Amino acid sequence: MKNYNVTDIKTSVDSAKSALIVAPVLNIDTISSALALALALKQSGKDVKVYCPQKTDQNYTKLSGLELLSDVLSTSDLIVSLNYPLDQIEQVSYNDDGGRLNLVVKTKPAAPKIDNDKIIINNDSASADVCFMLGDETALGTNISITNTGNWVFISPTNVVKSWAKSTLVDQDAPFAEIFSFLLPALGLTLDMDSGKNLLIGLRVATQSFSVNVSPETFEAGAICLRATQPTDNTVQPNGLDHPMPIENVEKSGSLSSGTFTPNPTPTI
What we know:
This protein is α/β, with parallel strands linked by helices.
């Protein structure tokens, strides 16, 4: 069992009501992990969005939570920030000036003037309470600016430092699916049938069915995910049997009954 130091990440997740998950590069390992995290966060009552700049194809149809994934990053939210002491602001209001919206910030008597260089305007969608970046953000192209604001958590199998990240989790010995198999329980999030299935698919692809780049922890992660996919006592077995579902049937179970699944550990650009 891997024991990541997730104190800062858990604090951010526990206090958040909304989350944005960004997967800069499209591949099975990354998307399965992003959707597993999204499903677990949604189950905990949070509003969740997942963004990847590339569209998925038939290789991804067996993943659960695809309805949460979009290849379009919304820029409809406008955030006006002031680099100014909050205790010097008396009131914030707005008015309609002939159809033009005015935001009015009234400072306290004797408070210093709010200079123009203290006003920050941002229309990026990274306005969620907590934002996750799965891998290097440079693949986002023009949307890379979303890291300029927000409470970002950077998760990667590559040991790099991101100045915009408030929290970082790096595991150079594991694919994303293995990282999230241990991370979700550590954050107090539930690994259910759908999220467990997603991570198991990611693990199988990233390790070529547990034949390459594996460690004892990789098999342990697989066991955690497989255990999560097993129906409870009150659930009818999808295969109509009374014994646990075999690993090869996990990808065929649930609401996904069509589409092909071709292992493709190589990122698609």
